[in-house]
Amino acid sequence: EAGVAQSPRYKIIEKRQSVAFWCNPISGHATLYWYQQILGQGPKLLIQFQNNGVVDDSQLPKDRFSAERLKGVDSTLKIQPAKLEDSAVYLCASSSAGGSEAFFGQGTRLTVV
Amino acid sequence: AQSVTQLGSHVSVSEGALVLLRCNYSSSVPPYLFWYVQYPNQGLQLLLKYTTGATLVKGINGFEAEFKKSETSFHLTKPSAHMSDAAEYFCAVNAGGTSYGKLTFGQGTILTVHP
To answer: In chain B, N or C: fewer CB atoms in 10 Å?
Structure first.
């Protein structure tokens, strides 16, 4: 079974630029999560999707971050404009409706300079 | 609301020694508790979880953890450390009954294993 796929693995951008990350969850997984992991901290949930609907985006900085999951499969997370403090690893995870575990991708490491 | 505190950001042990990583949680509802491991430049891998039932749970790679409600703790142990156990470990909690991936994580503990 293929795992959660994320791309790119690494991205370096200048502040005020925009960036997008892509996630392909495990086939059939209805729930998808985006986490932000700042160096030295645990991951923090940004947004949770159930199929193509948002379940929880209470911790998403909506003035600069956006996310979508148009067909209930792949998802993109966008930052516009980026700030230095957005430097982090962005992790995508997915779980099935009746599952007992969330599976994480390898993450995208973003550096904002 | 839930929160997790991991005591000790760095733990160092000798190969073959006991591993003990501490985790305390706060939750307003019965919690589900998790331990994840993260190797460098990798995502998170589930080691074990507690949902309901037996309070001593066994996971992969010889790890186990015990849910102690009275102490609000979920410490991770392994009787004998191996070099391959060197990684960062995260304790996480969610509100029981909610999506398994909707997690609040601790800040992590880096485990170093010396030969």
So the answer is: C
Q: pLDDT at position B52, please?
A: 86
The mean pLDDT of A94-111, rounded to a whole number, is 90
3-state secondary structure of B61: helix
Q: How far apart are CA A28 and CA A37, in angstroms?
A: 26
CA A39 from chain centre, in angstroms, equals 16
Find out whether A109 and A11 touch, Cβ atoms under 8 Å: yes
Our CA-based measurement puts residue A9 at a distance from the nearest CA of chain B, in whole angstroms, of: 9
Alpha-carbon gap, residue A67 to A37, rounded angstroms: 17
Of B43, B45, B99, the CB nearest to A31: B99
The ranges of chain B with pLDDT < 70 are 96-97
Of A42, A48, A104, the CB nearest to B102: A48
List the structure tokens of A107.
């993450």
Task: State the average pLDDT over residues A84-89.
Answer: 97
